[in-house]
């Protein structure tokens, strides 16, 4: 359920718009995770290696956001040395992108230890390759590097925001371990968990980009809203795709479609232990509102494949997939609306970045993998 | 090898000097680690429970340091509202004590996961009682709470210092896992590791106390030096006590004394896996300078009790224990000298706190457990 986007070839491509700056950020990231101790260095660098660094979805959004909010800010102080200040600002905003990625990778490292995961991003998880000790330490190391980098931005509101994100990541991960039936069968609990675990990071880092630029609380809130709604839409579609796979009939699939596409997903995601609860995402929780007996099934767990089959039967008969897609669309629109409410600007670059951000809200809900 | 001090009943007791303020700090600590998620809350609170909270050695030092540096600071700005400002300052210095303790406990939680430790502070380790997943998460949670509290101090130099400490804790822990023979047989490498893993936290938090009060870089460095030397002396004596136990003939013990006292320590500390390297501390490393063949023994590891016996033979014949105590005394004196170099003050409370800090440097090297 990684937070990445497929690269569709289109006229206005959000990713190519920031490609150059992104490689700068990526290179700096690699140099930031160099540790004095060789073993720690190779561990921390593990996920920043060329080829396995992921789609860099978050840094892309953040760099686009920086340009999208590059508008004159009403201020009482005289503007001196605008050029040097704004280039300094850009560097600090790039730092937010780097810090965000470090926090993200740190949480992946610890999650893999918690889940005893074998693979990550198509290669062996660090936990699997170098052992859980090094994975815990490398995660701690990245968090401390992120914290040091944060402190150097000398903006305590931003430090506080991103420190809170780390707390949210932990809270979300712990909520996921819940053993209460009421909680596991509640869509509200699930959405709250999703916010903490997947969405808080992107929404608060978007807000940080605005705060560093000196925007008002109102504008910073719009940046937050964009990140939050984009993130929620992304995760909800992720949940759908876990059931429907790459089928072109997403959300319209017959039961057999769903069951067929799911068999692979199940074998990789839902097979044993904690992971078996991975099936209880938005589609199942919506299905539960039509078929309350699903809750009893969830309580029994999904170690037994028969229970999985029964759950999928209910899902196929229900509007679970459809309602999940509808909710994702709603969040996609809200994200797009946040951008439309940004302070007016006739600057072409600003407008192009805003269009790219809106484009991302569309891609997130139309993607098929 | 916990960092705590025995309470000796004496006329000027450093601990009773700050006892009231310490319970205030302890209570606030308990309220700070309350999490939204019950499981996480009980995990994070685990080590802040009454009775198992340790000797609160670090908070004691930090509160004494705050008073010891409560002297007028030369400033060009007019002093307004001194009372409200200084009470605010004291609260922020208390926060440093709380943050330091949170970072310390977080590192204990992760260390116990790394070491598969069963017990901690006489009770089951969190790792053992609630499982490694919760221990990793609770550590992360405490770190994020510490980071949020740090950010609220709105002093980016202090944020940076304490974030670097987290990095040092990780670096120290990783150095301890080293598999290079050269490194494992080097006293310099060992002292560097000890600084990162045990001493960086107390020295940098002492420095933070001075920085918050607005002291010069010079005075802040003295505060750092005090913490560093106290911490090093403490750890070196810890190393000695691991071999000599509670014997009254510390450092003068015959071989049989050492071997006898060590048998218990060995069974708890040095028996298997990573822990078996716990025997290679300063005394053994000094002994190695007289008996280089000890290095070969270290390379072989101490899973075999016979190797432990041979190592203890060499240690008994060597000046290892004595030289370790001498080094501890040197650091104890340096710590005391740092206090003597503090800006002059005739304030009685200030002087009493300074005497208490000096008293701690003595207790650290004369303690027998």
UniProtKB/TrEMBL annotation, chains A, B:
Broad class of the protein's primary localization: mitochondrion
Taxonomy, superkingdom: Eukaryota
GO biological process: isoprenoid biosynthetic process; ubiquinone biosynthetic process
UniProt keyword annotation of Phosphoprotein present: no
Compartment annotation: Mitochondrion
InterPro entries xrefs: Isoprenoid_synthase_dom_sf (IPR008949), Polyprenyl_synt (IPR000092), Polyprenyl_synt_CS (IPR033749)
Any single GO CC term annotated in Swiss-Prot or TrEMBL for this entry: mitochondrion
PANTHER family, sorted: ALL TRANS-POLYPRENYL-DIPHOSPHATE SYNTHASE PDSS1, GERANYLGERANYL PYROPHOSPHATE SYNTHASE
Family the UniProt entry places it in: Belongs to the FPP/GGPP synthase family.
UniProt name for this protein: Uncharacterized protein
Natural source organism: Anisodus tanguticus
Lineage: Eukaryota, Viridiplantae, Streptophyta, Embryophyta, Tracheophyta
């Amino acid at each position: 359920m990684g937070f990445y986007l497929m690269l569709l070839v289109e006229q206005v491509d959000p990713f190519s718009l920031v490609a150059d700056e992104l490689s700068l950020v990526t290179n700096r990231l690699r140099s930031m995770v160099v540790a004095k101790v060789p073993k720690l260095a190779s561990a921390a660098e593990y996920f920043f290696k060329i080829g396995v660094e992921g789609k860099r979805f978050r840094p892309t959004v953040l760099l686009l956001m920086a340009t999208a909010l590059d508008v004159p800010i009403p201020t009482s102080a005289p503007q001196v040395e605008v050029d040097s200040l704004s280039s300094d600002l850009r560097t600090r905003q790039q730092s937010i992108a780097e810090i965000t990625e470090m926090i993200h990778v740190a949480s992946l490292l610890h999650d893999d230890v918690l889940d005893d995961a074998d693979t990550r991003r198509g290669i062996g998880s660090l936990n699997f390759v170098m052992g859980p000790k090094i994975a815990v330490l490398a995660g701690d190391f990245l968090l401390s590097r992120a914290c040091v980098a944060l402190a150097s931005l000398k903006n305590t509101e931003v430090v506080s925001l991103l420190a809170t994100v780390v707390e949210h990541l932990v809270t979300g991960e712990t909520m996921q371990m819940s053993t209460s039936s009421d909680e596991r069968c509640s869509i509200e609990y699930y959405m709250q968990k999703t916010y903490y675990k997947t969405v808080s990071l992107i929404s608060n880092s978007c807000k940080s980009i605005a705060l560093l630029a000196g925007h008002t609380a109102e504008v910073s809130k719009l940046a937050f809203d964009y990140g939050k709604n984009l993130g929620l839409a992304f995760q909800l579609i992720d949940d759908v795709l876990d059931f429907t796979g790459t089928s072109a009939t997403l959300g319209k699939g017959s039961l057999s479609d769903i069951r067929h596409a799911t068999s692979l997903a199940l074998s990789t995601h839902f097979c044993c232990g904690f992971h078996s609860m991975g099936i209880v995402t938005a589609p199942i929780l919506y299905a539960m509102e039509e078929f309350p007996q699903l809750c009893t099934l969830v309580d029994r767990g999904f170690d037994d494949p028969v229970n999985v089959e029964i759950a999928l039967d209910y899902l196929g008969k229900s509007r679970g997939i459809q309602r999940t897609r509808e909710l994702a669309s709603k969040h996609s629109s809200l994200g797009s609306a946040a951008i439309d409410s940004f302070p007016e600007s006739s600057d072409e670059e600003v407008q192009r970045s805003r269009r790219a951000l809106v484009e991302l809200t569309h891609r997130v809900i139309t993607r098929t993998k």
